[in-house]
Write a structure and sequence with these properties.
Shape: elongated
Radius of gyration: 33 Å
Helix content: 40-55%
Distance between the termini: 85 Å
Strand content: 5-15%
Length: about 725
């Protein structure tokens, strides 16, 4: 039984020395001097704030994309023992000793280093020679822009890593298709493709472009499979389901998990949660949750409430009134009702409180048992401090003359009767008998007499003049269709009124409630709201000194100064390797011209290259050329501030095309130049290496260069190399 012990146990393994060497060189290239400079570099000032918020478990919203990339950066901070205490207030600020600089920059650097062996393996899986694969890896290794971007707390290197991993995984899966379908390795690479795609999208939405490319490629390959008569219908269905599971279902589930972890980590209230709904804010620890904890859930007749506008941007505001009235005449000569002003006020205030009154009764307290207000019920809203009724009538609003003025009614004994009945419409109701709920219900107030809808129009326009204390206008919107969020309100603070006397009621309005009812949101509700905010919340795009257009990127007519030493001339710039970028443009142009030439010739039944070479040529175009196109062309349609680093995923694919075109030219078009081939390649690669070395001081920030040396590096007039005045 133990006879196998008589012989030694031998384990053999194949080691690709080239792959190992490329990986080691990539690690040295990206990790060398990673702590330098020990100062905030460009967008570290932006991402560092989010890392600090993760360390302190404070909720935030970043409109630039999903949270997975931020969590990876925060993981580096966590592993380094970062406590989150650093101001992140300016580029160039020296890091304090509590900031683990090496740890924070480690994951982007590792991702950038691993892109080198990934490039090698991608070309191997595309069935190109070892020399072509080695050339692609070395070009990625010596690309100055990729080195710079991967050595700091930035996300592009992580994004590119997951994109290349997804491409490699799909190619390995596809190459196993004919001989090892549904094997363990087949499943591994298929599943890893979906996981890598999800991670790429989770880092930045730019990853969606490459994900769509791989989905289209998989769809095309499956279309070809349908025409294979050797595959049964059952086998085709299994292939379809496997791809659907691995490339759609699992990535969607993983994408949701990023948000689940994000929300689980960030459970404390902070400055960013104010753009979220009251229900979301109340689910966070501290902040609004402190105020609303224990409030009654169901709004009843006699309830004392504050009404927050659901839109919440550009600022949150609450329905508000005060004793001041509208001026008899506005600056443009139009008259007003001279009634009490109603506004939307962006701060919490006792004048934000309203009482829900039953029109058929005089009492302003909640009965026992409470009578809940339901969808479709008619109510009056009484201002808590002034006891005047919310009213609207056929008088033009001060800033929106096409809409009705909203006021609190004052009886001047003139022919303008009160019109203060409002119908409660719960927009997010499940049935027509739903009860109006605190925080959870989004409500429209429809004026019974005129059918106008209560709307915070000031959120999309100017604020009121000095007579309105620069508060936001509230109007009755006539002929309203749909449910724009500026017309929706939710109850934020709520208590059951008990005091019928006005003075006692004013004291009551300042007192907290103590009833204990939970209003926790489900994960899917929080995810839906957060995802919508990320997609729709846009910061004001302003001109940046280093912003550029997509046309500037191809010829690298722009650069970005990332860091400047406060005393010496040492500086770091995002600049590509000029030789590599020029070669990539030339390779793309040659590929396009050759493809058009081959297509025209094939149309005439002239086949210049073998069929298998043609199929390979088209496959490479789909992956490398398609990868460049989908990661570059969409920027021409975007209305946002653009920077050179947005081009890095596209140029990575374009660089992979260089050795592909060179090998194709050697194998099929320039065989008679074989004797000069190696000399030309060595000369060209020496040029690439020379440019890499020349610009290394601007890539790594050291050594510091003299002004004359810096001027010599300004190869284009459009480059902004920083030179101190002597």
């Amino acid at each position: 039984m133990l006879g196998f012990l008589k012989e030694p146990v031998v384990v053999t393994a194949k080691i690709n020395v080239s792959l190992v060497a490329l990986t080691v060189m990539g690690l040295i290239n990206r990790l060398w001097g990673l702590c330098y400079p020990r100062a905030v570099v460009f967008d570290e000032v932006y991402y560092g704030q989010f890392v600090s918020l993760y360390m302190k478990r404070i909720f935030f919203v970043d409109d630039s994309g999903p949270p997975f990339g931020h969590m990876l950066l925060a993981l580096g901070g966590y592993l380094g023992g970062f406590d989150g205490n650093f101001p992140w207030n300016r580029i160039g600020a020296e890091y304090s000793m509590n900031v683990p600089v090496w740890s924070l920059r480690l994951l982007p650097a590792l991702a950038g280093a691993l892109c080198v062996p990934l490039a090698y393996q991608i070309l191997v899986e595309l069935h190109f020679s070892h020399c072509a694969a080695l050339g692609a890896a070395l070009l990625i290794l010596l690309e100055n822009s990729l080195i710079t971007q991967s050595r700091f707390m930035l996300l592009e290197s992580i994004l590119i890593f997951f994109i290349l991993l997804a491409v490699l995984s799909y190619l390995k899966f596809y190459n196993l298709q004919k001989h090892s379908a549904f094997s363990g390795s087949w499943w591994f690479w298929l599943l890893l493709t979906g996981v890598a795609c999800s991670c790429a999208v989770g880092v930045k939405y730019m990853g969606l472009f490459s994900y769509m490319l791989l989905l289209a490629t998989a769809g095309l390959h499956f279309w070809h499979m349908i025409g294979d008569q050797n595959l049964s219908n059952v086998s085709l269905v299994c292939h379809f389901l496997a791809r659907g599971l691995a490339l759609i279902i699992i990535p969607m589930g993983l994408y949701l998990s990023f948000f689940y972890v994000h929300l689980a980590l960030l459970y404390r209230s902070g400055p960013h949660d104010q753009i979220m709904t009251s229900a979301f804010q109340a689910s966070l620890e501290g902040g609004l949750a402190r105020i609303t904890q224990g409030q009654p859930l169901e709004v009843a007749y006699g309830s004392q409430i504050t009404l927050r506008n659901v839109l919440g941007k550009p600022m949150q505001c609450w329905l508000h009134s005060h004793t001041n009235t509208y001026p008899i005449r506005y600056e443009n000569g139009r008259g007003s009702s001279h009634q009490q002003q109603v506004t939307c006020y962006p701060f919490k205030d006792v004048n934000n409180w309203w009482i829900v009154k039953d029109p058929g009764m005089q009492q302003l307290v909640v009965s026992n048992p409470p009578r809940p207000v339901r969808h479709g019920h008619i109510v009056q809203l009484v201002h808590g401090i002034t006891t005047r009724y919310l009213n609207t009538h056929d008088v033009a609003a001060p800033l929106s003359p096409h809409s009705q003025e909203v006021s609190c009614y004052i009886d001047y004994n003139i022919s303008m009767p009160a019109q203060n009945l409002w119908r409660v419409e719960i927009v997010n109701r499940e049935s027509d008998t739903d009860v109006w709920k605190t925080i959870l219900s989004e409500v429209r107030f429809v004026h019974v007499n005129t059918s106008a809808v209560l709307k915070a129009s000031g959120l999309s326009g100017a604020s009121l003049p000095e007579w309105g204390y620069r508060q936001l206008e509230v109007v009755g919107e006539k002929l309203s269709k749909g449910y724009h969020q500026s017309m929706l309100w939710n109850v934020e603070e709520h208590r059951y009124g008990k005091s019928q006397e006005q003075k006692e009621r004013e004291v009551e309005l300042h007192s907290p409630t103590q009833m204990n009812i939970s209003k926790n949101l489900s994960f899917m509700a929080k995810f839906t709201e957060l995802q919508w905010k990320i997609l729709t919340l846009k910061n004001e795009d302003t001109e940046h000194k280093y912003s550029s257009s997509a046309l500037d990127w191809i010829t690298m007519d722009t650069n970005i100064a990332y860091w400047l030493h406060p005393t010496s001339g040492a500086q770091i710039h995002l600049l590509g390797n000029v030789a590599t970028w020029a070669s990539a443009n030339a390779a793309a142009l040659v590929y396009l011209c050759l493809s058009l030439w081959y297509l025209l010739r094939r149309r005439r039944k002239i086949y210049d290259i073998p069929e298998d070479a043609w199929q390979l040529w088209m496959a490479v175009g789909g992956i490398c050329g398609g990868g460049w196109a989908v990661n570059y062309l969409p920027f021409f349609l975007m209305e946002k501030t653009l920077f050179l680093y947005h081009y890095l995923p596209a140029v990575t694919f374009q660089i992979l095309l260089i050795p592909v075109v060179l090998q194709h030219l050697r194998d099929h078009l320039c065989r008679y130049l074989a004797s000069a081939e190696y000399a030309l390649v060595v000369a060209w690669f020496s040029w690439v290496y020379f440019v890499y070395c020349t610009f290394s001081p601007l890539t790594y920030g050291q050594p510091a260069l003299a002004p004359a040396e810096l001027r010599a590096l300004r190869w284009k007039d459009t480059w902004n190399i920083l030179i101190r005045k002597q």
